[in-house]
TrEMBL record:
Keywords: Kelch repeat, Repeat
Protein name: Galactose oxidase
Pfam families per the UniProt record, alphabetical: Kelch_KLHDC2_KLHL20_DRC7
SUPFAM superfamilies to which the protein is assigned, alphabetical: Kelch motif
Record PANTHER family: ACYL-COA-BINDING DOMAIN-CONTAINING PROTEIN 5 (PTHR46093), RAB9 EFFECTOR PROTEIN WITH KELCH MOTIFS-LIKE (PTHR46093:SF19)
Alphabetical list of InterPro entries matching this protein: Kelch-typ_b-propeller
Organism encoding this protein: Gigaspora rosea
C-alpha cells in the first residue's frame, strides 16, 4: 500500500515470495507478508535506480504483516486509514492476526491504533481487495472486495456492497441502493471533483465458491456521492482501441 502525504510517499506492508523448496511453502502459504513502514521524500532529488527510502519500521511497525488492503489519507493529512487486507501474525506466520477491518496510522505520533471506542453503525466485515477512496468531507467509501482462505473464509466470495465510514463521526453505514454494480474486487476507484466515483475493471463472480470472471473495461459504473445514486456508462473509442479486461490496475485523475 502507498499513500502520498504532502511531499512524501508512505509505503506499508507488501509480500515476499517463499521459495518453493522451503519446508513452510504450500498452496495456501506462498508468501510472507511485511509489517514495514517507510517513505520516499519527493522534495529532494534522487536517483531513480537507487532512491533513498527512510525506514520507520523501528518506531512505526504495523501490528501485523499486511497486503491487499487499501489506504487513504484523511483528517487534513494527519492520518492514514488502512482498510481490510490480509493480516499475518509475524511470529507464527498464520493469517487472520486481527478481526479489525480498519486501522489508523497517525503521522505525527507515528503509531497505529484501531478505529477504537466510539465507533458505531453497521460495521463492514473484514475483507481484501476493495475499491476504496476518501472524499473532501473525510468520508471513506468502500466498495466490493473479497474473502477466501487468507482472510479466514473457506468459501471464496466476492461482494457487491458499498459501505462508508465517516471519520469525523466514527460512523459506519451500509448503503444499500438500487442499480449497483455486480460483485467485484480488484477494480479501480477514482474520485472526481464533483463528488462522483468512477469504478473500472476488476473481477466478478456469479455465486460464492465459483471462479472469478474479468469485467470488461468498457463497463463503467459511477456512484454520485452527493445524490447517493448509481449509474452505468459504456465506454467506446473513436479509434476502435480494444483495452482488454484486467485486475489490480490503478487509475488516477
Amino acid at each position: 500500500m502507498a499513500t502520498l502525504v504532502n511531499n512524501k510517499i508512505f509505503f506499508m506492508g507488501g509480500s515476499r515470495p517463499i521459495p518453493m523448496n522451503s519446508p513452510v511453502w504450500n498452496q495456501t502459504h506462498q508468501f510472507n507478508l511485511s509489517d514495514e513502514v517507510f517513505y520516499l521524500d519527493l522534495s529532494s532529488s534522487f536517483n531513480i535506480d537507487s532512491p533513498r527510502f527512510t525506514d520507520l519500521s523501528d518506531i512505526s511497525r504495523m501490528p501485523f504483516g499486511s497486503e491487499k488492503g487499501s489506504t487513504v489519507l484523511g483528517d487534513s493529512g494527519q492520518r492514514i486509514y488502512l482498510v481490510g487486507g490480509v493480516q499475518q501474525n509475524m511470529s507464527t506466520e498464520s493469517y487472520n492476526a486481527s478481526d479489525s477491518i480498519l486501522w489508523i496510522y497517525t503521522i505525527n505520533s507515528q503509531r497505529w491504533i484501531t478505529s477504537g471506542p466510539g465507533t458505531h453503525g453497521t460495521l463492514l466485515p473484514r475483507r481484501r481487495s476493495t475499491a476504496t477512496i476518501i472524499n473532501s468531507k473525510n468520508v471513506i467509501y468502500i466498495f466490493g472486495g473479497r474473502v477466501e482462505i487468507d482472510t479466514g473464509s473457506s468459501v471464496f466470495t466476492i461482494y457487491d456492497d458499498l459501505f462508508t465510514f465517516d471519520t469525523n463521526l466514527l460512523e459506519w453505514n451500509n448503503l444499500s441502493l438500487p442499480n449497483h454494480p455486480s460483485k467485484r474486487s480488484h477494480c479501480s476507484a477514482t474520485l472526481m471533483p464533483d463528488g462522483r466515483i468512477i469504478y473500472i475493471g476488476g473481477l466478478t463472480q456469479s455465486n460464492p465458491g465459483e471462479a472469478a470472471i474479468r469485467i470488461l473495461m468498457t463497463e463503467i459504473y459511477i456512484f454520485d456521492t452527493v445524490q447517493s445514486t448509481w449509474s452505468l456508462k459504456t465506454a467506446n473509442s473513436r479509434d476502435s482501441v480494444n483495452i482488454g479486461p484486467r485486475v489490480g490496475h490503478t487509475a488516477v485523475l
